Amino acid sequence: MSLREIRPIAHEAAREQVPHAHAEGQLFTVKSGVVSIEAGGGRWLMPTGCIGWVPPYASHGAHIHGAMAGMSLYFDEAWSRAAMPETLKVVRLSPLLAALLDTLAQAEPPCGPVLAHYLAVFADDFIRQPAQTLFLPMPQEPRLLRMATALLASPDDNTGLDGWAARIGMARRTLTRHFQADTGWSLAQWRQQLRMQAAMERLVAGESVTAVALGLGYASVSSFIALFRRYTGTTPRAYLALGKD
Predict the structure, then answer these.
(1) Model pTM?
(2) Where is the HTH araC/xylS-type domain (predicted)?
């Protein structure tokens, strides 16, 4: 049977899931709250209304930021490799994906040929959806990784390039060149992505839009809201309301 298990997820507080792997492919949805996934040398953020795919035997860990609700579905290895992406992917829930998930999670879900048809449609639509942009690649060079890890812990740290070069013992030009080579991004782009992830986590934790914007160093609340809309397609307040529907 291709669909092995459906497991609801509900947590009232933040928690950490250590890196692990399993033979089954895993789909997981976030109905409310925010989850960050660490896998494949990077960090994905899964806000409300997203669904993520982890292929068989892919090592992955998770951090749940405050209260969270969702669902995990586990699929056998053969179906996972034949029908779904080979690497981790996070997408927004399309209306079709959401409807199919609701059908699969019913007390009496479809089975046999009907289930196979539903899963084929699900896999096709999932593959067609664009990957979410809330991905943060991590550098592999030890000194750069130490810097990136420190910024993950303190995203509001405003230390500039010269300051970081001195702190990790690397020339400024070498830092920028190696960081771009390791991640594909400039440090400025990477920090902007990091701060957007941190903003979502803090909003879900209950901080006000103003406190998040100013606490993360945005020039103004309006500039933060504009950037948030560019990333998510909605305002911070509307985004938070999604998890309360």
Answers:
(1) 0.75
(2) 142-242
The one-digit pLDDT tens for each residue of the chain (245 residues) are 699 999 998 888 778 888 899 999 999 998 887 788 888 778 888 877 889 999 999 999 988 877 888 999 999 999 999 999 999 898 988 999 999 999 998 878 888 999 999 999 999 999 999 988 778 899 989 999 999 989 988 888 889 999 999 999 999 999 999 999 999 999 999 998 899 888 888 887 788 999 999 989 888 999 999 988 887 778 888 877 755 54
The answer to whether residues 231 and 92 touch, using CB atoms and an 8 Å cutoff, is: no
Contacts of residue 193, defined as CB under 8 A and 6 or more positions apart, other chains included, come to 134, 135, 136, 185
Fold of 138-242: Arc Repressor Mutant, subunit A (1.10.10)
Residue 52 to residue 91: CA distance in whole angstroms = 6
- Separation between Cα atoms, residue 237 and residue 202, nearest integer Å: 13
